[in-house]
Design a protein that fits this description.
Elements (H helix, E strand, L loop, with lengths): L14 E2 L20 E2 L15 E2 L3 H4 L17 E8 L3 E2 L2 E2 L5 H19 L3 H5 L3 E6 L3 H5 L4 E8 L20 H6 L2 E3 L10 E3 L6 E8 L8 H7 L1 H11 L9 E3 L3 H5 L4 E7 L1
Antiparallel strand pairs: 1-2, 3-4, 4-8, 5-6, 7-8, 9-10, 9-11, 11-13, 12-13
């Protein structure tokens, strides 16, 4: 999720009482009025989010940098669970950065995926083979100007390309259990190179499954030729292991593009019919 550039607007409203002095009809002076000055107090910043809160977020809100949707009881239908709440460190070299600056947004983007891994259990490979994703929110520019300095990490589950799954049963620790790993695993409606391919939960109707992760060293993008070649042997072997007949099988490999790499996906996935 990339930081979005927004204009910073600060509005200060001052109220000043008028001082009136007048005489009565008969010319007698009225008592002196005492002038007073009133300054409107700035609104208090919204309260920080609560750890463990649940929200019924639509997909469009889940991929946005801010959200003003109110929490709902976790026993009701919801699509996100708050897994971490913390304070933004916006002071750098004596300068206070805007909440929508790249530095602040990158700080939160590095924190929330770690919180997700601890929340759902399992290991990094299981998380990468699942449809569980972290999303995060910071205050609006206006709320930040009023003093809000929190960040919020949520866990969501993709049910499709642009749909979030219902999490009423909760997903804390699900990747530490075999049933949870299978329910939230990543599957496909077709082979990953097919035109009608769509990622779906393995608990939904599907025909292919993501089986292994192909890892790369962190750093600059190696180039498409290298990432394509890197996973061929591993994914072919994984396809043979998953097949009933190791002499006749299909396999697929989904490598990271340059754009995906720059957004943090520095790994590929092996696929096999399921």
């Amino acid at each position: 999720m990339n930081a979005r550039t927004r204009s910073l607007l600060v509005v200060l409203t001052l109220g000043l009482a008028l001082v009136l002095a007048a005489c009565s009809d008969d010319g007698a002076p009225k008592p002196d009025a005492t002038p007073t000055a009133r300054q409107s107090s700035a609104p208090a910043p919204p309260a920080s989010p609560k750890l463990g809160a649940c929200y019924e977020l639509p997909f469009e809100t889940a991929v946005a940098p801010t959200s003003e949707i109110k929490p709902v009881p976790c026993t009701q239908e919801h699509t996100s669970e708050t897994i971490a709440v913390g304070r933004i460190d916006a002071l750098v070299d004596g300068h206070l950065l805007a909440v929508d600056s790249d530095r602040v947004q990158d700080q939160v983007a590095a924190t929330c995926p770690k919180a997700l891994s601890a929340y759902v259990g399992g290991n990094r490979e299981l998380l990468r083979l699942s449809m569980i994703r972290p999303v995060w929110f910071t205050p609006t520019v206006e709320d930040s100007d009023a003093g809000a300095d929190w960040y919020r990490c949520d866990a969501v589950v993709l049910a499709g390309t642009s749909t979030l799954a219902d999490l009423t049963t909760g997903i804390k620790g699900v990747l530490g259990r075999a049933k949870g790993r299978d329910r939230y695993a990543m599957c496909g409606t077709a082979a990953p190179d097919a035109k009608n391919f769509e990622r779906v939960l393995c608990s939904a109707r599907h025909s292919w499954r993501a089986t292994e992760v192909v890892t790369f060293q962190q750093g600059a993008y190696p180039g498409e030729k290298k990432v394509r070649a890197a996973g061929r042997t591993q994914c072919e072997d994984a396809g043979a292991d998953a097949a009933e007949d190791p002499l006749s099988f299909e396999w697929g490999y989904e490598w990271p593009t340059k754009e995906q790499w720059d957004m943090g996906q520095d790994f590929g996935r092996c696929w096999a019919p399921d």
